Predict the structure.
Amino acid sequence: MADGPLMVLDSAGLWFRAFHSVPEKITGPDGAPANAVRGFCDMTAVLVEEYRPTGLVAALDREWRPGWRVDLLPSYKTHRVGDDGEEDAPDSLAPQVESIGAILAAAGISRAGAADAEADDVIAMLAAREREVLVVTGDRDLFQLASPTTTVVYVGAGMRKRLAYTPEVVAERFDLPVGGDAAVYADYAVLVGDASDGLPGVAGIGAKTAATLLRRYGDLDGIVAAAADPGSDLT
């Protein structure tokens, strides 16, 4: 790619955030709600103005709850499943998602998705492939992608409090033994869990204990090995 970063949007997370943060009194010419459209476009414009990427991609969920992931962890996103088996979402959001897609297409902004995969999977692939990437998300799971070539711009606390997560920032914020990249954040997430995705974590282990274990044993494999070692001080 040309000089400068590729900005990758975690699209669904952004339009959900826009829907819930912008009043529904924002409507289109036909009187239909347009709050998610307005918020998504405003956020994108602000981010592009600030970071000046040379490329922009909207990553999409082709499957919001892939079957292969549910097979691995049946509780995955269970609390978000509606009566019809689909993702439970406000009725007025779906038409706006279609409008956002049309706007992206009209603006010539690439949309990327993959069969039986979530946007997270697509984002991880692009982060591994491209020379320099800015990931925009409200999902902390993606902190694990922070590396010398990938910065995660976290908007989960709102656009005004957005923060760029490099490996050093991940290490400082979560007290983790991050080296060249922040891949160990994935092990941290396994230990503490994430109620928003139906991930249970390990009983009795909170954020401080997880960070302590990872600093002492390096990663999840090290913790498991220590737990199985009779000579270890891990009981």
